[in-house]
Fold this sequence. Notes:
Elements: H1 2-19, H2 33-38, H3 47-56, H4 66-73, E1 78-81, E2 87-92, E3 110-115, E4 121-127
Antiparallel strand pairs: 1-2, 2-3, 3-4
Amino acid sequence: MLPTLRRLFAFAVCLVLLSACGHDLRAIPGFDAAAWRQDAYACRNQRAALLPALLQHRDLLYDTRTDAIDALLGHPDENELSEQTEKIYIYYVAPGAQCEPRHPRSAASKLRLRFSPTGVVSEVLYQP
């Protein structure tokens, strides 16, 4: 019985440590999150003007949890899953083919946020 309790305790400690990873993101100086969220797929061409402030403070995005990114930037325009259980959020920055019905993939400029297996931002990449 004692080994079972030890395992249970170790599991509980691991859960607490994993849930403590990352941080919340309240706001980014000079960045209008509401305008970004309202410009889905960048079809209103507002995100390009907001991008410099976001990139200037990109260090604030690192180690931020998925739910905090969702609250700040809204639901991603696209997302991908990698083989290592990493998630990638894709936000278009300029209008393109993605603005057509059914939102096909586009070569338009985009912001890519890669999340580690623990669910925190590990990479911020802008693809012009």
